[in-house]
């Protein structure tokens, strides 16, 4: 087996499995432990939770985002790129088709290229921000830099693999897949877990601010 | 601790208590608070913080200290719970001292940062865990501890005795008779519509304010009573130490008096923390989802009697006025609109602070900082720079603050920063500007 075949085959299975099992374990653990908390279930309000999701997902929907327009634009674009390109890049869908014979709607290549470059730029800006902005620098730990760097590298290698630059395709694409798999495995166990904790924490805060405090959390 | 530079302040409640502690006690307290009492929230809040810095500029302490990163909300968590978790609970006494200083004197638990966090991480909850940890060890500003002990022994914050309470109300009644014909202040009357509870300070030092509140009650003609036993003071300073045992004791007492007197509602005067504590913070701990007997704030009461025409404003306030939105009744209970209705009824020239309502900055005295007493006055004056700038920008000479803490805090800020302005309670303004009907005049 070549390096490419390993990352394309068994390692892909491992990473998806770890990701899903980790996710399920985390969520199970959360909902089980939440029963001990008098507040989480007792005061949950669907209406206020949905209201909060809406305002925090719309660009400039929250007061907080409106106060920091530049950061909002950068992190918004970064996250849109992070969500859309892995799922809707034609090359990725081709691989699904090759393996399992399934496919779905894809982004036009020009759009996914553009998004990839934007994501890399925004990621680099966010990384520089960690180094340069005083309060963010004070807060950041090595892990924060490393995780951000990992995301940037995944996108960078992906872009290089698509245009087959610098290294032979099998090597650079293999590296891209490997880093992507590492990222996937990391999601449930590192700060990447904010992907799903976002929804849970927002539900708590929205219910508290909306139903109990009759105020706004956005 | 790197980047944490502070002028030394000595507070025997913190320093002396820490001297007496041993490692075993500290370990047991950590075990109790962070293993037994906390829930899953603690873990996911700490794990989810991406250190993006969105909360920094929401904090008046951070802004007032020239954006010193160690005052940013997320940094305060990092310097306390983050440090504790990193050290796996094996902390030094110096660490504990830093935790207490940050939790009690550098955070007002105003929850503005929670509104700014993209995840909605409840930073104030994390800081209050630090207070709880310090609280169970008895490590807290001496002045707060004193008030909590007073609550334990007398159900009021100022060691006021029962006979002094009854005596105070009786002489206020006597004096009110010069202004209101046959003024009668009922104590312990059964089946009244409203049970009025008051602030400890109002009974001891600020009796003119209490007298004004009672005057409004009498003129509005509502059927009310005051308690004739201990438990007349609605303040609940144990909330600041997160001393849940005392906190629930006090709240339970209030609801018990109300049910014994068979009143329909409980009314409190202008205060923030007590409203929040009785409505949900300690009601929850007692197992009630919400207040078992309607518990209303003076702002809700004034709104009610003004809209129902029970009192009328005879002449409006002429000077330029602005309004401080107390966190505990606005961000914590959405009374902003009712408050504005009252202020507009009262004032000809009302100008808003920016930002306002639920986004307003804390007065820098809330969450127990004013109760931490003289040693920490400097901390709240420094932290209030943003607030005083906000007030200056409005150009108002009257600041309306419907909360004892905001009132005192802003008064101190105005004095320290030499601003031409004064602070007033709503009750003072209403009593001064309302119409006293002919039939009630002596």
Structure notes:
- The complex is a heterodimer of chains A (218) and B (442).
- Chain A has 218 residues and is an all-alpha fold.
- Chain A has eleven helices and no strands.
- Chain A has helices spanning 3-8, 10-33, 46-57, 63-67, 69-88, 90-100, 109-132, 134-139, 142-163, 169-186, 194-212.
- In chain A, helix 2 runs parallel beside helix 10 (169-186), helix 3 crosses helix 11 and helix 7 runs antiparallel to helix 9 (142-163).
- Chain A starts with a helix and ends in a 6-residue tail after the last helix.
- Chain B folds into three domains: 12-140, Fumarate Reductase Iron-sulfur Protein, Chain B, domain 2, CATH 1.10.1060; 145-306, Glutathione S-transferase Yfyf (Class Pi), Chain A, domain 2; 312-433, Rossmann fold.
- Chain B has helices at residues 12-20, 23-37, 40-48, 60-64, 73-86, 93-105, 112-116, 123-136, 142-154, 162-176, 200-204, 207-220, 238-241, 244-260, 273-285, 298-307, 336-346, 377-383, 385-394, 404-416, 426-433, and strands spanning 194-197, 224-225, 265-268, 295-297, 321-323, 398-400, 422-424.
- In chain B, strand 6, helix 20 and strand 7 (422-424) form a beta-alpha-beta unit.
- In chain B, helix 5 runs antiparallel to helix 6 and helix 12 packs across helix 21.
- The longest helix of chain B is centred in the middle third of the chain and has 17 residues, at 244-260.
- The radius of gyration of chain B is 22 Å and the shape is globular.
- The mean pLDDT of chain B is 95.
List the helices and strands and how they pair.
The complex is a heterodimer of chains A (218) and B (442).
Chain A: H1 3-8, H2 10-33, H3 46-57, H4 63-67, H5 69-88, H6 90-100, H7 109-132, H8 134-139, H9 142-163, H10 169-186, H11 194-212
Helix pairs in contact in A: 2-10, 3-11, 5-7, 7-9, 9-10
Chain B: H1 12-20, H2 23-37, H3 40-48, H4 60-64, H5 73-86, H6 93-105, H7 112-116, H8 123-136, H9 142-154, H10 162-176, E1 194-197, H11 200-204, H12 207-220, E2 224-225, H13 238-241, H14 244-260, E3 265-268, H15 273-285, E4 295-297, H16 298-307, E5 321-323, H17 336-346, H18 377-383, H19 385-394, E6 398-400, H20 404-416, E7 422-424, H21 426-433
Parallel strand pairs in B: 1-2, 1-3, 3-4, 5-6, 6-7
